[in-house]
Amino acid sequence: MCLLFFMSAMITLAGCGVEPSAEGVEMAVASTSAGTTTLTPIPTLAPSAVPPANTTLTTPMSNSIVSPVATLSFHPSSESPTVKTVDIEADPAFASVEQSLIARYASVSPTKWGERVPGVKTRLHTKDKVIALTFDACGGKEGSDYDEKLIQYLIQEQIPATLFINARWIAANPSTFQDLASNPLFEIENHGTEHRPLSVTGKPAYGIAGTKNVKEVIHEMKDNADQIEKLTGKRPLFFRSGTAFYDEIAVSVAHDLGFELAGYSVLGDAGATYNTEQVYNAISKAPSGSIVLAHMNHPEKDTAEGVIKAIPQLRKLGYNFVLLAALELIE
């Protein structure tokens, strides 16, 4: 494990931090001493204020919540943003939901960590020759640029794509975000508020600190979803964490809040570190039902060139491209 940590620390982080390859990235951590986990009973609350265990909140519930608007600022010596909230109007219903979820998982310890944690969907459920292209926009000091060449190619070729966008990127590119959101080719989804791995213990992935507890898990997902909904009129369904790492408790919290977790099956550009040929080789060999993960926030890298080279090859093989919402996702 020490060797793995040392090797990961040596990788140059780009974009979302380097998403590792699918092989060998899921790691188990120590089980609880009892060997089993028990969920804390939910406090007695009004039925409309809290979801039952193993169910999700409905969209009307989410839309009824008055949420803070997140604004971002940066410490001069750090890439991590300071998230401030303004114009907050307290909502008793959501406060009850939040507290009940914190109580539910208070005595539970995670036993899994990685990209392939149960509950994270990585493929399209289909036998058709279709592929979902997804592009992350991570934001932050080194990740708030815009790969206009990539996006313009998708528009020119009328290729639909799902865009996972972080709150920091939205703050840095407000007009571009609105242009993307208004284009029916693109599906805008949630890449988090501070671009953190989703953990209840602060577990890091590739040098990026994870959320520390259930409350931070909730707000990493919810605050950016609220912002996207406020800006576009549509609440995102899918969430992908920074680095695409999760523990299983965080996964359960996400499901309680009605989010579907979108992983990937094809690593398209490895955090925008692949060269043109590597991007081409990864994407052009994607099998049917693949969810491809690449990045749209590093125009100085080779992602666009690799995608532009791979798309004609996939079309020649008879593949079409779809949004994530078009089909059921499976693990």
Can you describe this structure?
With 331 residues, the chain is an alpha/beta fold. It has one domain (2-28, 105-330): TIM Barrel, CATH 3.20.20.370. 31% of the residues lie in helices and 16% in strands. The protein is built from ten helices and 15 strands. Strands 7, 8, 9, 12, 13 and 14 form a six-stranded parallel β-sheet that branches. The chain has a three-stranded parallel β-sheet with strand order 5-11-10, with helices on one face. The chain has a two-stranded antiparallel ribbon with strand order 1-4. α9 links the parallel β12 (266-267) and β13 (291-295). α7 packs across α8. The chain is globular, with a radius of gyration of 19 Å.
Terminal Cα span: 26 Å
Which CATH C-level class is it? Alpha Beta
Instruction: Supply the number of structural domains.
Output: 1
Shape: globular
The named CATH superfamily: Glycoside hydrolase/deacetylase
Fraction of residues in β-strands:
15-25%
Taken in chain order, the helices and strands follow as: HEHEEHEEEEHEHHEHEHEEHEHEE
Question: How many β-strand stretches?
Answer: 15
Q: Give the CATH architecture.
A: Alpha-Beta Barrel
Pfam families: Polysacc_deac_1
Protein name: NodB homology domain-containing protein
Organism: Paenibacillus allorhizoplanae
